[in-house]
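Reading a protein record of the kind used here takes only a little practice. The integers have meaning only within a learned vocabulary of local backbone shapes. With that in mind, consider the following protein and its fold in token form:
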Amino acid sequence: MLAILVYSFLLSLVPLPTLSQTSSYSVFTYPIPVSNSNSNLTFALNLPPNSGDIFFHLSGPSQYSWIAVGFGSEMKDSLVFIGYISADGKNVTLSPRIASGNSEPSYTSSLNLTRLPGTSLSTTNNTYTINAQCSNCRSWSGGSLNVSSHNQYFIYAVGPTAGEGGLVNLKSDDLGAGLQRHFYYGRFTMDLVQATGSGGLPTNSQAFTANSGSASVTPLKIDRDYALWMHTLLMISAFLLIFPLGYLMLRFWDSVRYHWWVQSVGVCVVLVGAGTGVYESRLFNKSKSFQSAHQITGLVISSLLLLQWTLGYIHHKQYPQRHRRTWITYTHLILGPSLLLTALINGFLGFKFADASNRTVIFYVIVVGVNMILVGGVMVCKLKRKKRERRLSGRYANLSPTGSRRSVDELGLDETAYDSNVARELKGYEEDGRYVDNPVLRVS
């Protein structure tokens, strides 16, 4: 019995991986805007002497999809601890990651991370609370902590709020879950000499309400995923506005010249949009490999658009001389609508790939539907007008409009546009049911 008592006493002297009531630590806290108020992001750090372990506390507003603190002065080669809502929405997932640059950090399994009591998600106060011990975390691939530094650099960031930009909020148990670009970020320093002491942190989180042994280096910076917005705006503008307008320039207004210019602008917009898409893809882990259906389809469409533009240019150059359609013409006529339809479907895939909310996807589908109805309605009006013109031109079957052939020779109009121009000229020379002589027209 005496041996058991002695063993129990000695065991009580061994430090355990729990939070202590008294310890040495440094604290950084900074107000983060939430709606019309502020909520603090707080980070506290303790470094037990003669050990490779660290104890830390991280808390912040859960209205943001994730919160994070990184060890280092910049993202490159930084060790980052990220917290986000668990899949069931009742707890916090803690993910250790390494950042290779100004892009999404990647999960690392080389660190031994232990969640400590007090880690929770408060739905009442809308707060993430993370208490953890990390073994052998003072050095990692690409960096290390200088435990003798009074001004060790750290970085911090929070993700977008729920529903920001039409995106869904992150809820996952996956330690490598995809993250959306940070919404706010900043940099601070900590006194690691002050943080060195007996292992553990206070169990009372009220001890972390004020800065201690820390200083903000840069003010809170606002960030947005501008490349994603630019990519979305350019592609939607091209395939829902510019290309349909170019189509109407030829089929409704019978202008090959403006058709060519508008479609050329559309191709340039798509190429710039594809470039921003490639840039955006390199920032996130799930898109770096370019293996998704949206990315592959988008690159194929961008390449074929250059072919489509070239075929159209050749067709409209050759037609005034040959006055007949060739394989280039038919390829151009089939490829154009096919690319447009495929691009609109790929837009749907793109919104899903970017984790857009269902509301955003539905809105996109509605816009596409309305666009098709409008273009279709314009073409129906065009067909009705052509029928009237054909009836009118039939009344002058004995007339040969030699002057109208100039439209074909100079502008490269196809037969549909040519016939329409002829009918329009004929229509202009009927007054009160009588034919008015016109030097451009001659009697056969």
